[in-house]
Amino acid sequence: MLPLLLVLMLATEGDVERGRELFRSCSGCHVNGRAPKLDSLFGKVTLRNGNRVSEENVREIVAEGFNGMPSFRYSFRPAEMDDLVAYLRTLKGRPAASAKSPGEGYFQAWCARCHAAAEFPEKLKEGSVKVVEEGHGGAPALSEWLDEGARGVLFGYLRGGN
Question: Which of the 8 DSSP states describes residue 95?
């Protein structure tokens, strides 16, 4: 009985490589900028729908869709959903490897796509912190994606610190 239980537990964890293959159908939107990048999905605090990041809540968004994303309830079998979530878990957000500091890593992960670091020390004033916190120019509200400590490190870096 115990070996069967162990096999069932391992079977629900998902196969990362199969999940990577399944993600190809998602990458048309989630890699080319039409939808949020998922390279740090499980490193975020909340999802775009306001729910905390958890496997259950990620599965719900995939199954039900949200904010223009269609439902994929009938596109993935339960085992395939396990595989997809297993793959998404490998994409945890972390500072970029080339970063010299955690603040620079957050900048590279969240801001560098549209901004150069040199433009911030002059522009980053208290009013602009609120804009960044609440989202701007199509960028997500960092208050929904990074915890307070990570945002503090990022803002310190943008003000000219590390």
Answer: -
Tokens of 132: 């960044």
Distance CA 159, CA 84 (A): 38
Sequence-ordered list of residues with C-beta below 8 angstroms from that of 61, at least 6 positions apart, any chain: 47, 48, 49, 69
DSSP string, 3-19: HHHHHHHHHTT--HHHH
The distance of Cα 24 from the centroid of its chain, to the nearest Å, equals 17
User: What distance in Å separates the CA atoms of residue 104 and residue 127, rounded to the nearest whole number?
Assistant: 21
Cα–Cα distance, 157 to 144 (Å, whole number): 19
d(CA 108, CA 113): 8
Helix axes 78-89, 55-64, angle to 10 degrees: 120
Mean pLDDT, residues 110-117: 66
pLDDT digits (tens, 9 = 90+) for 14-40: 999 999 999 988 888 887 667 788 877
Query: Around Cβ 106, how many Cβ atoms within 10 Å?
Result: 28
3-state secondary structure of 134: helix
CATH placement of domain 2-89 = 1.10.760.10
